[in-house]
Every structure is written in structure tokens, then in C-alpha cells.
Amino acid sequence: MSRLDAAPIRIAPLPAELAHLWLDPAVHTYITAMNYPRGSESHRLPLWRDHIARPGWTAYGAFATLSRLDSLRPTYSRLRVQTPLALSDTEALVGVAYGYRGAGDQWWHRQLYSGLLRAGVRPDDARGFLRDYFELTELHVHPAAQGRRIGEHLLASLLSRRTEAKVLLSTPEVADEGNRAWGLYRRLGFSDVLRHFTFVGDARPFAFLGRPLPLDAPAADLEIGC
């Protein structure tokens, strides 16, 4: 077991006003977790900055305290976060989750709306379903820190004070739902909204999932047009 695997984890808010301290490590965690090519950060950073300004935006991070030696390794050096956000100069950001209130002028909202229509949902029912929800935009844990239920703690913190009726997300389809992300979402009661959807500009199939809020209420299947 590496020292990073054994490091204690702290879950804490990521304030918008301190984004200059956490945004680069958070996007690096995202790129690494998604196995995207190096250099993808330059395309994602402006988008994440735009999201921070959206109504209802909230973010949480998972921080691991590393030894000074570990924190200087190239693998971890880009995850380091400065004080005052970090409690010490050896804290690294190993997980991130954020989202905001969904709205009709947002690209993701329009994509889901068009997908529901193509699936046969009536326009009025699709608009009603999308009237009051929190979009879970990103939830990622660095591969070196996975397998410790960090994603579950991040999600619980992120959703703990939301006032929307439901939370919705999209995630890549995988065979037999066989990865940690799918296991987490199913364990927390997320049900299918729309499956095998292809976003504009991305050939991979995605699933839209959702569940009612609050998170600690009994999970129930979401119904469209009821």
C-alpha cells in the first residue's frame, strides 16, 4: 500500500473565491481519472471557470495529507493545494465534486431535453421533468485514491443542503455497469432517465441517471410525465 493510499482523507468545501488555489489540481484529478490525454486541461479550465459563475454552484474536495517526499513525486505534485485552503503544505486534492441548478439555457439541459423527445417523451412532460433539478456536473477521484468510498462522501456532502426536487447526472455507459462510478450511483439509488445517449461531439454512449432529493430520503424511480 502506498502512502497516498493510507493517507487520511478530509472532505471540505471548495469556495468559488479560492478557485485560483484549487482549480488546477481539481482539473488535473479529473483528467487523470478520466484517462484523457495530457493537455486536455487547457480546454477544460475555461469551462470549469464558467460553471463556477452559474446559479446554485457548489463544490467539495477530498484532501489527502501526504509525506513531504510523496508530495514531491511528479505523480502528486500537480495535486498540491496551497494554504489557506489546504491545512498544510503537504495536502493534495485527490477528489472533486461540483454541480449547480439546472436551467433551460444550459447545453447539458438542452441535450437531455432533446434526448427525451427522441425517446418519445411529450414536450410538456420533458419540460416538467426538467423544471427543478440539481445537475451533478463532475465527480472524480484520482486513481491513486480510489476504492476508499471517497466519491460517496463527496456526493453526500455536495447534496446535503440542496433544495431542488431531484439530482440528475450523465455518465459513460460501460459493459454490465461494471465500474466504481456505476456501483456508487446504483448503491445510492440512482435510476435510469435515458440510456445510450450520444452527446454532440462525443461518440461514446452515455446514460442519464437521477434520483429524488434529499439524498437521505428513500430512493424511488423517477417518473416522467406522471
UniProtKB/TrEMBL annotation:
Please give the Pfam families that the UniProt record associates with this protein. Acetyltransf_7
- What SUPFAM superfamilies does its record include? Acyl-CoA N-acyltransferases (Nat)
Q: What EC number(s) does this enzyme carry? A: 2.3.1.-
| Keyword hit for Transmembrane helix | no
Instruction: Cite the entry's keywords alphabetically.
Output: Acyltransferase, Transferase
Instruction: Kindly indicate whether the keyword Zinc belongs to this entry.
Output: no
Q: GO molecular function of the protein, one example? A: acyltransferase activity
| Highest taxon of source | Bacteria
Top enzyme class, one word, equals transferase
**N-acetyltransferase domain: which residues?**
77-214
* Protein name per its UniProtKB record: N-acetyltransferase
Species whose genome carries this gene:
Gordonia hydrophobica
Task: Show the taxonomic lineage.
Answer: Bacteria, Bacillati, Actinomycetota, Actinomycetes, Mycobacteriales
